[in-house]
Amino acid sequence: QAQVGQAFMLLRIAEEAEEDHELIHYFQSNQLIPGESFDVIETTSYGVTLRNDKQTITITPQVADKLWGSQ
Question: Are 43 and 4 in contact (CB under 8 A)?
Fold first, then answer.
């Protein structure tokens, strides 16, 4: 799990998420795809806020659990 203030590169989407076409569309439309880098701005029990040069997005913990990456 990435910590606030750290850079995070998305490496992989969990396999079970790949079967959810709506979720995959959400990831693609928000550039939450492998190879994209984000800064972790905030983490709360309600979500994780990520920012890169294109956008700032807050995702739920359930969605964040489907994204695997490295710092």
Answer: yes
